[in-house]
Design a protein that fits this description.
4 strands, 6 helices, 4-stranded mixed beta sheet, 15% strand
């Protein structure tokens, strides 16, 4: 009986020590380094991007479709300015909600394209959260190749279909 309790205590202590040893604490910020542990990239933009006072009228002038390179879920630098302004608006208006619709071109399997569309939408969501938007304000959905913006079988068509569309559901 005594050996059994001692064995249990030793196993418990070992488990706690093992769990503590396996956990890591990063001393770098992903917004500063530009990388995450899953290999995806996050742009180096912090909450203090200097964008303030974005109004609903300003939203009408901003881009709401963001394009991606083939087989990539990394935001292009040309998207940053508009996404920072969308993020500032959302951060200033906690009741505002947005849906990020991820899309892919027709190349690849249906399952792969659904996952790629999701990764693209999540990439935009991460960017917005780094810039102060609450996760509760963002919904992501993937349509994969199911809703092409342009029908065709050329690079021109495909490049228009590799996108995330930002749609406000409540402002």
């Amino acid at each position: 009986m005594r050996t059994s309790n001692l064995t249990k205590a030793a196993a418990l202590a070992f488990g706690v020590v093992w769990a503590a040893g396996c956990s890591t604490t990063s001393t770098t910020d992903t917004a500063t380094t530009g990388t995450e542990t899953d290999g995806s990239a996050t742009q180096g933009v912090g909450v203090d991007s200097g964008v303030t006072g974005v109004t609903i009228e300003d939203l009408a002038t901003l881009r709401t479709v963001f394009y991606f390179d083939f087989d990539q879920a990394t935001l292009k630098a040309e998207s940053y300015a508009d996404l920072e302004k969308h993020s500032a608006y959302l951060a200033q208006h906690p009741s505002a909600r947005v849906v990020l619709e991820g899309h892919a071109d027709e190349r690849g399997t249906r399952e792969y394209n659904m996952a790629l569309g999701e990764r693209r939408a999540l990439s935009v969501a991460r960017f917005m959260q780094v810039n102060g938007v609450s996760g509760g304000q963002i919904e992501t959905v993937s349509f994969g190749e199911e809703k092409p913006a342009v029908v065709g079988h050329s690079e021109t068509s495909w490049s228009q279909n590799r996108r995330v569309e930002l749609k406000y559901t409540a402002q």
